[in-house]
Amino acid sequence: MKIKDQFRFIRQNIKKNRVRTSMTILATAMGCAFLIVLASVGYGLQETVVKDTLEEQVVTKIDVYGHESEGNYRPLSMEDVEYLESVEGVKAVTRRNQLRQIPTYSIDEYDAEAMAYSTHFPSEVESGLELSGGRLPENINEVVVGYHFVKHLVKDMDNADIYDEESGEIKSEYLYQDDLIGKTMDMKVRKDVEGEEIYETMSLTIVGVLEKPTREWMQDSNVYISQEIYAKVEEFTGTPGGELGIDPENINEVDTSNTFDDVKVYATNLEAVQGVSDELEEKNYAIYSVVSEMKQINMLFTIAKAGLILVGTIAIIIASIGIYNTMTMAVTERAPDIGIMKAIGANPKTIKQIFLLESSYIGIIGAIVGTIVAYLISLLVNLGLPIIIEMAFQDELPEGLQFSAIPLTLVLIAVGICLFVTILSGMRPAKRATQIDVLKAMRREI
């Protein structure tokens, strides 16, 4: 019997029992849809978490915290920076030192308090630093400020009436409204001498404003000063980084001018991050990169997705019971047909193949229907569930949160499992069909 004739025979038999076959296909479709939708939650949340991680952090960035030597970690020096720059795959090495006190900044009658960082701007430019306006510093008294620095410039800072009672935010009439670029501001730092506070004022010119951070909740109100200004603050206070609360006379004679608080390595591309990270770890550098975090996140989600797929497979196995019953009844009902085929010399393998094809046919149709239903459910979940949660809990969900995602790999896995289970369910009835006695089949005695 040709394969074309086998399919014609299968379709004819299915038409005779449309209701029973349709219910079996429906059960299979429900099981397949359940598997896909359940596992899609893991895929959707993974996609959201990975996307947020990539947006919040520079994927080619590697934080270097120090160098381990004989069980102790030492801060990074210029020699370390030069070595890091020589590593293959490294695009830039940025280095910063944080001022260890919070200066006060004044522009006309407006004041602000913000952290200050000594910054090596050439390496920052190589790493991809961008400005929303202005230019980079060219002289020692020129600075760049963070995007949100202007929101901290307040008139009459000590006045309690500057805050709006309803929103709790500073009233607009007290905020600085002019353009910052080109403005001269005074940075006031202090030192403590025998319980007395002594202040020093340095005049700085704002020449640029950094680009807005990628995430809405991120704030950048820092002031990025030159290394020369940082050194002047140290000279004034007599302490490393201008730190307060320590006696300059009791400080160990350690040269801190050649060390850095914050060193970041930027790889040329994402593919180079792992190679650079491995080499730095071999050299006993304490590092962190988003790639290592992504590995842990992906591992956790892989385990979660495997568990969800396993649970979803149980639904398909339950549906396979219906397929087994349908095929068993089909063998019983078609006993005369089987007897005729065997009487005219049909090969038992052909008879077995017919019933396996029929169970596969049911499985494929169920998988296709289930996949379509799963996509519709996924769409409804992503559109409707956030609205329901926000209405029920009165809390706004993070922007871009995706509850369900159905990649092609998930569809292939689900269809593969569904097809395997349905074929397995038809094996026993198909084998029974080959064992039917011709005479009994003709007399309908099975």
UniProtKB/TrEMBL annotation:
Residue ranges of the TM segments: 21-45, 299-324, 361-389, 401-424
Its membrane topology: Multi-pass membrane protein
Compartments, record wording: Cell membrane
Pfam families from the UniProt entry: FtsX, MacB_PCD
ATP-binding keyword on record: no
Protein name: FtsX-like permease family protein
Annotated organism of origin: Ornithinibacillus caprae
Main location: membrane
Residue ranges of domain MacB-like periplasmic core in the record: 21-234
Any one Gene Ontology molecular-function term assigned to this protein's record: transmembrane transporter activity
